Amino acid sequence: MSDPLLQTIEARRDDLIALTQDLIRIPTLNPPxxxxxxxxxxxxxxxxxxxxxxxxxxxxxxxxxxxTHPRWNLVARREGASPGECVHFNSHxxxxxxxxxxxxxxxxxxxxxxxxxxxxxxxMKGGLAASIIAAEAFIDTHPExxxxxxxxxxxxxxxxxxxxxxxxxxxxxxxxxRVQHVIIPEPLNKDRICLGHRGVWWAEIxxxxxxxxxxxxxxxxxxxxxMGAVLEEMERTLFPLLALKHTDMPVVPEGARNSTMxxxxxxxxxxxxxxxxxxxxxxxxxxxCRITIDRRFLIEENIDEVKAEIIAxxxxxxxxxxxxxxxxxxxxxxxxxxxxEYAPVVRTVQDAIAQVLDTxxxxxxxxxxxxxxxxxxxxxxxxxxxxxxxxxxxxxxxxEWVGVQDMLDSAKVMALSLRALLVExxxx
Length: 428
Known about the structure:
This protein is an alpha/beta fold. It has helices at 4-11, 13-24, 36-49, 121-141, 165-170, 223-243, 303-320, 344-357, 372-377, 404-422, and strands spanning 53-58, 72-79, 82-92, 111-112, 115-117, 146-154, 181-184, 192-197, 199-208, 260-268, 288-297, 325-334, 337-338, 362-366, 384-386, 401-403. It has two domains: 4-197 and 336-422, Aminopeptidase (3-Layer(aba) Sandwich); 199-334, Alpha-Beta Plaits (2-Layer Sandwich), CATH 3.30.70.360. Helix 8 crosses helix 10 (404-422).
């Protein structure tokens, strides 16, 4: 390995490990949004010391932003020696709940062999650390570069990204006049380039009933039974229909090439009693039952069709149950997105993967959405991909980990991509 840039990254292995561990040890749990300011301040200090101009930006007024849990983001920019294009690395700093089943401290950042363990190690603090090492090594090795390098650490990707990338995009941070190339270091495996994601539609369905004494249910109307009929109709007609829908998008894993729907939650009847309550529930017929649905759809579908399928289920049940009443409330939606495989950032990263890993990059599409949706939809910036270290299947799992060698290799790919775009521009 004679390339000084790659040698510089290899020499910073210990720094990469320590940086990843430090990030994991800041428990940025979302919800509710803990320690967002702390992690942004940590990164501000690090990147400022390396010559970046930094901004800490609170997404005031965004969903979930509050005085107790403000939505903080960091954007750092390093200008080159001459004008040129900007390459932006965007990582989310929030992590999901810990969950059960851990055999290690979820926020310990424990290093064992080649693996660093902890919540967010894979998704995606390892990717954030790799992008920082890549950018710093590139700047130190090629101080004469043109254009600019940006690194952002943003809030709330795990809950939609509205307090993070969506807010920044609305403020113009992803305007194509300002930024030309975006790489999101999500954990899609180091030999894959993720071109986009499926669409998503979240909604809440509520069935209505009439409260009555539980000993005389014939005087009431049970909303839970109505919801049971909805679920039965979904099993009978909707889920078989979704299983028949298949996409040409290279979605991974294979099962996600079909349309899918998850029943995210169900709530009916009386509220759950506190854990320390030693009495019994009251005898009531439930007058309300709600489910939350998470529908993932394909680029070949349109959202009006997706909504119509749910309405058809509800109207079928209504035709069969005289007392049936319902409300359907849309929560949020995102259309599918997919960057062209010949886009400049795709070609550049593809070439870098071939150099570092001696393999042909695989193009994939994510089964779930990530912040590319806001860069595309709000920022109108199409030249965007996800590429980073980590194994997708480990995300949100107990004993989550990221491989040190995977981070090093990904950092090398990112650094070579910076050089190709800012020192040796790719020809269109």
